[in-house]
């Protein structure tokens, strides 16, 4: 839930993001929070996903490792490339949420408990 709220805050303050205003500061802090929260979600959900299927847990951990390496690199990407790089990171986030949502929907349709704990 915190991840979703953070994405909404980032999107809201994106319109105000410049370099010298309060909106830019909020956008920047929310982006840093997104990087940390998503990594935390990936790592904590991995154990529950492993109980569903070993490969899903490995997928979550592998994506977490990739995120840990790639997300901080965004701060050093040249301005000409930062839009494409940002989309790559966004694709990673959306892909994980989409795959896990699909997995949970399949389990729901099969009448299996949705508990990840």
Q: Round the Cα radius of gyration to an integer and report it.
A: 16 Å
Low-confidence stretches: none
Reading the helices and strands in chain order gives HHHH
**Strand coverage percent:** under 5%
From the spread of the alpha carbons, the general shape counts as elongated
* C-alpha termini separation: 17 Å
Measured as a percent range, the helix fraction is: over 70%
Number of strands: 0
Structural class: mainly alpha
| Helix segment tally | 4
- Largest sheet composition: none
Query: What number is the mean pLDDT?
Result: 84
Can you offer a commentary on this structure?
With 117 residues, the chain is mostly helical. The chain has helices spanning 2-14, 22-52, 54-73, 82-109. The longest helix is centred in the first third of the chain and has 31 residues, at 22-52. It is elongated, with a radius of gyration of 16 Å. It starts with a helix and ends in an 8-residue tail after the last helix. The model has no long low-confidence stretch (mean pLDDT 84).
Helix-strand blueprint:
Blueprint (H helix, E strand, L loop, with lengths): L1 H13 L7 H31 L1 H20 L8 H28 L8
Helix pairs in contact: 1-2, 2-3, 3-4
Keywords, please?
117 residues, mainly alpha, 79% helix, elongated
